[in-house]
Amino acid sequence: MRVDHHACQRATTTAVTGLIIQIAIASTLLVFGLVASSTVFVFASLFAWVSTVIWLGLIVLFYQQKMQLLEVLEETELSGNDPSTFFDTSGDEIRPASARLNLLHRWVMPGLSLFVALALIAISYLLLTFLKDLNHQDDLSQTFILQTPYIGWALAVSMGFMLVNFIFSRFVSGMANVSAWSNLRGGSAWMVGNAIILLAISVGLFFRFFENDQVLLGVCWAIPIFMLAVSAEVCVNFLLNLYRPRIHGESPRPAFDSKTLSLFASPDSLVRSLNDAINYQFGFDITSSWGYQLLIRSVVWLVTLGAVVLLAMSAMVVVEPAEQAVRIRQGKIIGEVHKPGLMFKLPWPIESSITEDVSRIRELPLTFKWKEKRRVILWTDDLFKMAITKPKPFIVNDGEGTSLEPDNDILALVDIRAVLRYRIAEDGFYKWLRFGSDETERRSRLTYREMAIKAISQNAITSLFQKLQLENVIGSQRGDLSTMALELIQESLDEHNTGVEVVAIDLPMVAPSGEAAASFEEYSVAIQGEARLLSAAEGQANSLLTHTIGDSDLVDEVVTAVFDFNKSRDAWDILRRNKLSDETDLHQARQNMLLLQQEAIELINKGNGSAAAKIRNAKAERWATLMDTWSRASRVSGQMAAYKAAPELYMQRMYMSVLARRMPAIRKYVIGIDPARIHLDVELRSINPLLNFADALESDEEGTN
User: Fold this and answer.
1) 256: buried, middle or exposed (CB in 10 Å: 19+, 13-18, 0-12)?
2) What whole-number distance in Å separates Cα of residue 264 and Cα of residue 193?
3) What CA–CA distances, in Å, run from 64 to 11, 76, 248?
C-alpha cells in the first residue's frame, strides 16, 4: 500500500471515530451508573475515560505524520531533478513537521504513556480503598456496592457496548496490519480492554437474574486489579523502549500499546502464535498431524461434555449434618426444607440452593459497639471516644413510677451495651428465609433481616427498661436483666415469625448515662458494702444456728417450730389472763401449746446441737433439785414425831445442834440449874472430850439418820 498523506488522513479519521465512540461509551456508562445506582458501571466508566487519552494521542500522532508527509511532498516538488538545490541541506530548521514528529515519538508519546499508567494506578488505589471500607467498623466510613434494580437495561447497555468495542477493535486491528497504521494497535488494545470489562459486567448481571450478587461484587474487585495489570505492562514497555534499538524508517511503538490486549483484539493471531510455539517445542509441524487435527475437531464435543458434567453436578447439593437447605427458582422457595443429606434440584441456572448452618450462633450488637475490644468497663469511661457510634441512653423510672399522669413520673437515663446471641431455630429455617433477605442496606453492614431483628429486639429492651426502676437496674435486679430481656425478646421475635432462637442476651455494661455516672460510684460502693455485711451476717447467723441446732438441714424446721410454739404460748397466755375465757378454749390452747413444744423439742434433740445439750442439762438439773428438796422434806417429816413427843426437849436439842454446826470453834457450856444460883469460876484448860456435848449431839444425830 502506498503511504502518503491520504493514508495518514484516513488513520486520523479512524482515531477521531474511536475517540467519539470512546467518549460516548464512557459518558453513557458514567451517567447510567449514577442514575441507575450501579457502582460497577461507574468503575467501568473510569477505565473508558482513561482510554480517551489514548485516542487523543493517536489523533495528534497521525495528524503530525500527515503533516510530515506533506512536508516531504512539498520538498520533492520544489527540488525537482536538480541535486544542488537549497533543500539538500538537512536540519530541523527547514523541516519543522519532521522535528515535531520526532518530538512526539521521543517525549510526548512516552510522557502520555506514563500519564496513562499513573492515572490507572491512582484510580486503582482509590477503588481498592473504596472496596476495602466495605466492612469498616465505623458506619460513617463504611462504603457500599450499589446494585441497580434495572438488570435488563444494564445487561442491554453492557452487551451492546461490548459488541461495539469488540467490533471496532477488530476493525482497527485489521488496519494496524499496515505499517503506516501500526500505531492504531494501541487504540484497538484499549477498546478490547473496555470489551473485557463490559463482558465481565454482563456475566455478573446474568447471575443477578438468579439472585446471585457475589459475581458482580467480584467484578468490582477485578476492575481495579485489571487496571493495575495494564498499568504494570505500560510501565514495563516504557522501560524496554528506553533500551530497545530503533530501526531506521520504522515507526516507534508507544508504551501504551499493550501487546496482551492486542492478542484479544485479533484472536486468530493468538491461535497462530500458539501453533508456532507448539511446533517449535516439538521440533516439527505437529499442528498438521492427524492427532492434533482430531483434537481440534473434537474440542467442541469435549467442552460440551464438560459442561454437561458440570450441569449434572450442579443438580446435587450436599447438606452437612448441622445444615438445612432449600431450592430456589427465580427467587422463590421451591418445596420443603431439606435436612442433612443429599438434595437434588434442577441444574443451574434454573435452580439454585440456599444452605445455612442452623447450629451456628450469630452475634448482633443491639446498641453501640466498641472501637477496640475492652476487658474492663468503668462507669466513668468516656463512651463517646471509645464507642464507634454515639450511645443512645435508655429511659428508666427513677421513682416509684405509679402516678396516673406520666408527666409526674421521675425518669432517668442509663447507657446499656447489649449483644444478642441467636441462631436459626431447628424448625424455623423456612420462617428465617421468608422474614428478610441477605441484601445489605446502604450505609450499613447489616442485612435487611438483621436490621429487622435488631429493631424488634431494641423495641423489646426499651419496653423492658421503661418498666424498671433505676435502683433495680443498677442494683438488686442487675443479675436478672439478661433473663428478663431474653424472654421478652424471644416472645417478640416469635410474634413476627422470624424463625430465630435467642441463645443469650449479654449486658456487659449497664451504667448511669453521661456525667451522672461518677455520682453513682459511691452508691455502688455502699451497695456492695451492704451486700458484704449482709453476707457476713447471714454467714454468722447460719453458723450460730448450725451450732445451736446441730444439723444445718433442720435449721428452717426448728425455727418454724419454735416460732409456732411462741405464737401458741402467747395465745394461751392471752386466754389465761382473760377472766372471761372459756375453760374449754383455755384447755385446748394449753394442749396445743404443749404439743407444739414437744414437736420443737423433738426437732432440737434430733439435731443434737448445743440447744439439745442445754435441754438435757436442764432436765438433769431439775431432777437433782427435785431429789434434794424431796430428801429434805422427808427428813423434816421424820423429825415431826420426835417434836410431838417432847417439844421442849426437841427444841433444845435442835438449838444445841445449830450451835455446834455453826460455831464449831467456840467452847460452849451447858448448865442444868437456875442461872441465878450459879457462880462460874472458869479455868482455861482443855476438858475431857467425853464431856463435849456438841460432839455427842452430832454423834447422836448421825446415829438417828
Assistant:
1) buried
2) 9
3) 11, 18, 18
Single-letter code of the amino acid located at 46: L
**CA distances, 512 to each of 90, 181, 386, 396 (Å):** 91, 78, 16, 10
pLDDT at position 164: 92
8 Å CB contact between 82 and 229: no
Q: Is 251 helix (H, G, I), strand (E, B) or coil?
A: coil
Cα 597 to chain center, whole Å?
Answer: 62
| DSSP letter for each residue of 528-560 | HHHHHHHHHHHHHHHHHHHHHHS-GGGHHHHHH
3-state secondary structure at position 137: coil
* pLDDT value at residue 396: 57
Q: Can you give the residue ranges of every domain in the chain?
A: 5-77+96-285, 289-357, 366-518, 544-620, 646-704
Chain centre distance of CA 384: 20
Length of the chain: 705
Asked if 34 contacts 42 with a C-beta cutoff of 8 angstroms, the reply is yes
Instruction: For residues 697 and 652, give the distance between their C-alpha atoms in angstroms, rounded to a whole number.
Output: 11
What is d(CA 29, CA 38) in angstroms, rounded to the nearest whole number?
A: 10
Q: Look at residue 257 and give its three-state secondary structure.
A: coil
Three-class secondary structure of residue 412 per DSSP: strand
394 backbone dihedrals φ, ψ, rounded to 5°: -100, 155
Q: Please tell me the CATH code under which domain 366-518 is placed.
A: 3.30.479.30
Q: What share of the chain is helix, strand, coil (3-state, %, to 5)?
A: 65, 10, 25
Instruction: Give residue 283's region: left, alpha or beta (phi > 0; psi -120 to 50).
Output: left
- Residue 244 near residue 254, CB atoms below 8 Å: no
Q: Which residues pair with 415 in a beta bridge?
A: 511
pTM of the predicted structure, to 2 decimals = 0.51
Neighbouring C-alpha atoms within 13 Å toward the C-beta of 662: 6
Helix axes 5-35, 39-79, angle to 10 degrees: 170
SS3 assignment, position 336: strand
Angle between helices 151-175 and 5-35 (to 10 degrees): 170
Supply φ then ψ for residue 344, to 5 degrees.
Answer: -105, 145
> For residues 285 and 275, is the Cβ–Cβ distance under 8 A?
no
Cell 538545490 identifies what position? 85
| Cβ pair 154, 36 in contact under 8 A | yes
What phi and psi, each to the nearest 5 degrees, are found at residue 329? -130, 115
The pLDDT value given to residue 119:
94
Q: Is the alpha carbon torsion for 460, 462, 466, 472 positive or negative?
A: positive
Nearest to 476 by CA among 518, 534, 418: 534
Q: Residue 42: what residue type? A: V
* Bond prior to 349 in cis (omega within 30° of 0): yes
Give me the pLDDT at residue 114, please: 92
Adjacent-strand bridge partners of 342: 318
> 10-residue block means of pLDDT along the chain (705 residues)?
68 90 94 91 93 91 82 71 48 68 83 92 92 66 79 90 90 82 86 92 85 84 93 90 68 81 69 63 64 70 84 84 83 82 82 83 77 59 58 55 44 71 86 80 73 87 76 66 85 88 80 61 72 85 79 80 87 83 83 86 81 83 87 79 80 81 75 70 57 52 49
Rounded to the nearest angstrom, the gap between the alpha carbon of residue 31 and the centroid of all alpha carbons in its chain is 39
Q: Are 194 and 25 in contact (CB under 8 A)?
A: yes
H or E stretch at 408: none
- CA 549 to CA 547: how far, in whole Å? 6
